[in-house]
Amino acid sequence: MKTIKNMTLIDDDDIFVFLTKKAIENTSLVELIRVFGNGLDAINFLIEHCKDLEALPEIILLDLSMPIMDGWQFLDQFTKLAPKIDKKITIYICSSSISPSDVELAKKNDLVSDYIIKPITKDKLIDLLKNIIEEI
User: Where is the Response regulatory domain (predicted)?
Assistant: First the structure.
């Protein structure tokens, strides 16, 4: 069975991260899950590893509201970095924000595949992972 080799969660909510990691681990669809509590740590990791395709994730679940660097700031930096990365990275925003302006901004960003409102159900998470696996 095909799997996702590398996935990244960028979220400062420890409960969401714990539950999401457990749900993903129980599917056996993802080999490695990296977690960053803010966008700055995540973007720094991507910059450092932009030529190391094995270290780069296939999928990123990105929260919007975080300290140090929020999700929007991360997307701004990632937009500049993306041309230097020779790997398709699928980004899903996972946010508790139901603000129509946040949803609209996300839909306008070509790097964002979807906007998922928390809490994310296990079924939705499994569907999302299976769709990514089909694209790989």
Answer: 6-133
Tokens coding 45: 């990791």
| CATH number for position 20 | 3.40.50.2300
pTM: 0.93
Q: How many CB atoms lie within 10 A of CB 54?
A: 9
pLDDT tens track of the chain, all 136 residues? 789 999 999 999 999 999 999 999 988 899 999 999 999 999 999 999 999 999 999 999 999 999 999 999 999 999 999 999 989 999 999 999 888 998 999 989 999 999 999 988 888 888 888 888 887 7
CA distance 44 to 52: 14
